[in-house]
Design a protein that fits this description.
Layout: H1 14-30, E1 42-47, H2 55-70, H3 74-81, H4 89-103, E2 107-111, H5 121-141, E3 147-151, H6 160-176, E4 188-192, H7 198-215, E5 224-228, H8 231-234, H9 243-249, E6 254-259, H10 261-267, H11 280-293, E7 299-301, H12 320-346, E8 352-354, H13 359-387, E9 393-395, E10 398-400, H14 405-418, H15 423-430, H16 434-439, H17 442-449
Parallel strand pairs: 1-2, 1-8, 2-3, 3-4, 4-5, 5-6, 6-7
Antiparallel strand pairs: 9-10
Length: 450
Amino acid sequence: MPPPRTSLDSAALADAAQLVRQANLTFARRYPGEVAGRQPVHSVYGGAQLFNAQTPRKVGELAMRALREFAPDAATLGRALAISDHPALETIHKRVVEKLTREAVEDYRIDFEDGYGNRGDATEDGHAIDVANALAAARKEGALSPFIGIRVKPLNEEMRSRSVRTLDLVLTRLVETADGTSGLPAGFVVTLPKITIVEQVEFATRVFSRLERTLGFGNGTLRFEIMVETPQIILGADGRSPLPRMLDASEGRLSGAHFGTYDYTAGVSITAAYQRMRHPACEHAKQVMQTAFAGTGVWLSDGSTTVLPVPVHRGESLSSQQREENERCVHHAWKLHFDDVRHSLEGGFYQGWDLHPAQIVSRYAALYSFFLEGIEAAGARLSNFVKKAAQATLVGDVFDDAATGQGLLNFFLRGINSGAITEDEAMAMTSLAPAELRGRSFVKIMQARV
């Protein structure tokens, strides 16, 4: 049988095909999708003046102490967070305990900005050296969190020189104490606050490039994240969002974008009484962040809850009434934080800030409740979807097409990453093999099965 007749001459379209090929490849390079590797579920912030080699470990111990004092069992945790009817409540409490025991702090940010203040150049110089020495000692002792870094001051005219000097001092001292290694802790990142214009990112990129050459780091070794906490970074003077151009200006060094709830709401004239993570103004800004960085591999982080789970009464000899008041106060703050974290997760933000050790309890409780209550439905959808090998499927009343496959896989990857779901549970729910799950790519799973 002769081949079917076509009307187009492929040779005549060669030039057009080459143009679209180049455009497709450029698009694929800019939007590689989720990057391989683990994203931390939180960043714990603390003033640089307080940091020492034991700080990450101490924060974890304080989180565990708060759990033992104010939610020693699943029933109390359920009552505090209003999840007493959660079918996996016992598992949630158990896994919070396991996580706090094993690795309470995933990411710690040593703060030379709001949590530090302006202390004079000589004082900040001294603290920068102290921080570097503490980082070196903690790395040697195996006491660092998996991700760690520093937040410098803004790159505006008033603070730019001070910001660069602090960064230079910390990195130079780390190299001096390297003992045959690069000196840079694993997962090290620098946070740039109050970014307003693309030129600040361009400047940071030049500084990082120069430091890499001077200190002997490979090109692109130093990474930074930007704080999205000013209106101008969402919508510039030209009517466009500067965020995509900031990614270009970073020359591959931009690893994350963190939303700053309270600076941003203040910047759009929202009064203090109404500054909160779930304000509509914050939702708009975060949706712009998601749109600007979707598919680029830039990690997104939500902001913080400023109502802290701190007891109102201190001391050893408290009355029963005082202990009850302490519990109510901590439980109230936990519930606010729990709800904020759940809202972030529902909105697609899988990382946030924690400002107090006790918030780590409600952070993990929110993560685990979120993933555990969705595991069966997501598992059924992904399993059915894989079996149909990229054909459309219908499970219950949820219709899936090929675009949802990676999202379903990411649900399990993030659940495993957070400690909410074990790898064995994910394999049992999805019918995926270990290599398929660890490969992190739905496309590769399909290519191997079709």
